[in-house]
Amino acid sequence: MLKNPSECRDAWKTILLFLAIVTVISALFHYAIVNLYPSRIYIGSLMWCPAIATIITLKLKKRPISSLNWNWGNWKYIRLSYFTPALYGIITYILIWSFGFGNFANDETITNWGKELGLFGIGTLSPTFTLIIAIILVGTTEVIRSAATTLGEEIGWRGFFIYELRKVLSFTGVSIFSGIIWATWHWPVIVYYGENVILELISFYIVIISMSFMMTYYTFKSKSLWPAVIFHAVSNVYIQKILPELTISIKGTEHWLGENGIMFAIVTCLFGIYFWRKAIKEKM
């Protein structure tokens, strides 16, 4: 953290400038998603708004884009940034299945998923092999595809924003403040498309702030923005594309699963507390 009051004021001006730019640019695509159609084009464009805002802010501040941490970093943090969100996603759904908030997919459901993925074009597979191959394929190729859009967010949020916040806030302050901003940036879509808006907003804020602690930790430890890109992509794929396909919904399931679900909020909160305590212990 900076000690000089003048440098602190300059850091806050940069932070507010970035937030103003990202708000204006994002508003255009939020409008398109809410009032036109939530297509991949608009959603993908929205996810690149933080990166565009970062580039504009750097240009206005006469700082080079190369000042961001583009280096790949330690492979250790790349691996952990894959397995951590995969782990908390799996734990979330195991709890959902165990407590009866949803049922684990039967053979028919798995077979239908395999057909949707085109796996039956290579021969007849048993549901078990279909499940294994589907998870491997979606957990790799879909993560790579997803990273193309999460990169846009992470250039802004973790590549630039949290480093500016670090100049004026502690690790705890950076994680909470950036998490609140990140969650608020999503709220127009959640409010418009949510069914139980209050519950979903509360759960979503808990999830995003908890993820912020984890991603801030990996970003600062690795000194690279790439672990956050991988982390974000893996989290989206497991929570949106893999685990829901393995769950048969029953009455009330919608309140527990997904990125706005109660169980996901509980599990990510526990993970967030672990990373917060770990960061404090390591004096980050």
Features:
284 residues, 10 helices, two-stranded antiparallel ribbon, mainly alpha
Description:
By secondary structure, this protein is mostly helical. The chain has one domain (71-281). It contains ten helices and two strands; from the N terminus they run ααααβαααααβα. Strands 1-2 form a two-stranded antiparallel sheet. α1 runs antiparallel to α3 (49-60), α3 runs parallel beside α6 (127-166) and α7 (171-193) runs antiparallel to α8 (197-222). The radius of gyration is 20 Å and the shape is globular.
Mean of all residue-level pLDDT scores: 91
Structural class: mainly alpha
Strand content: under 5%
Strand order of the largest sheet: 1-2
Number of helices: 10
| Biggest beta-sheet profile | 2 strands, antiparallel
How many β-strand stretches? 2
Q: Any idea how many domains?
A: 1
Shape: globular
State Rg: 20 Å
Oligomer class: single chain
What string, H for helix and E for strand, traces the elements in order? HHHHEHHHHHEH
N→C terminal distance: 11 Å
Contiguous uncertain segments of 5+ residues? none
Percent helix: over 70%
What would a concise description of this structure say?
With 284 residues, this protein is mainly alpha-helical.
